[in-house]
Amino acid sequence: MQFITSRQFSPNDKSLPPLAKTLWWIPSATKNLALINAANNLGPEMLHFTELYNSALDHIDLMRDYYNWQSFEPYECFSYCQYPFILSIVAKRIILTKDSEQQMILNARKSLVSKVARRQTPNIDIFFFNINVRRSHLVQDSLNEIAFKQKDLKKKLKVTFAGEPGLDMGGLTKEWFLLLIREIFHANYGMFVYYSHSRCYWFSTGQTDNKNLREYNLIGVLMGLAVYNSIILDLSFPGICYRKLLSPPVVPADNDINVGVVENPTLDDLNEIMPDVANGLKHLLEYEGNVEEDMGLTFQVSLEEHVTPKTYKLKPNGENISVTNENRQEYVNLYLNWVLNLAIYEQFRAFYFGFHSVCASNALIMLRPEEVELLVCGTETLDLHELRKATEYDGYRFDDSIICQFWNVVESLSDDQKRKFLLFVTGSDRVPVGGMGDMNFKITRGPKRSDYLPEAHTCFNQLVLPQYSDHYQLKEKLVTAILNSEGFGME
């Protein structure tokens, strides 16, 4: 890794031979790393995948490398994108974002050409994927908009709430995602089951009528739109969800090919969702007594969803087949495959196609499941020192007394309040890939009014901070604003 960095960014002292004479060095070194990566992926990881990142490559012309990769056969032109394991998540985010922007421009141009060809007067709306929804019918209106505007999915997203003035510069889009995700994942909606022990959601079994499948497709589209438009979502899916989402990473042309199926799921996969059940199955495999007599199990699975227990057969006539010491491994394998694949196949299939209807691209196939999760959900790591260093000021200076007081107040907040502060100023309590230093946060001087609360413009990650007289007043007003931020003090 260090060699590639030294060769890519040659030192000034000319300690290495000219690059023109050693063109084979970097491809050869990268291919050797590819062998290490392949071996690492065969079994339990000896190296975490991030150990193979070369962050120096974040600073090369990534899009040129990406276009070279798409334009040539692998043997004709070396490209780092051929070996995505070496590119950091920051580099991949740059590629994905730029690729999305290019697709947005291309689709907008197609709409413009189509309008002109039909001798119609174009308007600004043809350049966007326009979502118009009523707050009182949020899910249904969103479903209808997505269903009727499939050809616009790859345009820049713009959201309007019916009957409300305001131009969407990003804030309304964030709010739409926030409210829609919250409503669809509510327990009363019945599409997902929340497991408190693992603090994650999983797909509800039995929700396979056309209406529900449309809504699972909507969730997939939402996740795709979030990645495509660089929006962070507050989703709590287990890691296996993202593995299923990339199984396969390219949508098959044959509709009969299964999608969203993880081969040979493990107890570790189940442990991410139902740790108590996973522990029970592990105990079953390790039990030294007579399984059939002591446990009385049959080839059935019983799950409690939304307070209603349901029983399903793991194999034909499963209710009459006892689990024994000899067949208990088969029972566990069938159990895992049923819970993680078969029971939710139709639901996840709709979800899979929804996601890929927006995100299908060559950039996507470079990502690992863990990296897709990072792009969708961001991270929970709050580094306020990093945010402070990157903050810009309008009307204030970084060393003004009120600014120093402001940061002292923010750093004194509880972890929960810090997340609410982040939600207040950005519209999301998650940190995007690249860290808080990439958030372009700005603090603007407000009026000298002690009765005013701080005001946030989430479209621009901007905080308008009134000129308070002292530390205590600043803390009182800021805490009041962030604890009551939804629909109050945010624009």
From TrEMBL:
Residues 149-491 form the HECT domain. One of its GO terms (biological process) is regulation of signal transduction. This is HECT-type E3 ubiquitin transferase. It comes from the Eukaryota. Its EC number is 2.3.2.26. Its main location: cytoplasm. Gene3D superfamilies: Hect, E3 ligase catalytic domain, Hect, E3 ligase catalytic domains. Keywords: Cytoplasm, Transferase, Ubl conjugation pathway. InterPro entries: E3A/B/C-like, HECT_dom, Hect_E3_ubiquitin_ligase. One of its GO terms (molecular function) is ubiquitin protein ligase activity. It catalyses: S-ubiquitinyl-[E2 ubiquitin-conjugating enzyme]-L-cysteine + [acceptor protein]-L-lysine = [E2 ubiquitin-conjugating enzyme]-L-cysteine + N(6)-ubiquitinyl-[acceptor protein]-L-lysine. The gene is HECTD2. It is found in: Cytoplasm. The active site is at C459 (glycyl thioester intermediate). GO terms for cellular component: cytoplasm. CDD domains: HECTc (cd00078).
